[in-house]
Amino acid sequence: MIDPMKYAGDQVFNYIAALHPSWYVVTRTTRFCFDERLVSMPYTGEHVHMHDSTMIIYAGFKFDGASGPAIDGVGNMLAALIHDALCVARDHNAKGLSAAKADRLYRKVCIAQGAGRFRAWTHWTALRAFGWLWRLCR
Length: 138
Prior knowledge:
Blueprint: E1 16-20, E2 23-26, E3 30-33, E4 43-44, E5 48-51, E6 54-57, E7 62-63, H1 77-91, H2 99-112, H3 117-137
Antiparallel strand pairs: 1-2, 2-7, 3-6, 4-5, 5-6
Helix pairs in contact: 1-2, 2-3
């Protein structure tokens, strides 16, 4: 288990593999615990399960890393994985989950993983400013 709120360094790269330059896949089922409730009712999808403040991402989950001009790295890869899993669950109507909550957790995990407050803030700002456009274009 990786605690997303404690610095894990490059440990996250033991759990993911690159499919090609901008896509990754989770190679080991991983459990995350947060200090806040993620969903109001349990959610189970193909590769994601959430209950209260716990998230399980199963092996085989594909995600695209940090979007936009952000460079994937130690400080944001875990945050990108968690954010993408939250977005998948939100898109499948997980109760109590919003884009704002997913974006806020992305920022918190970036900071915890050593990205720095300014970098985390710029990523969060981009998510808030352009996330609606991505959701509109799907």
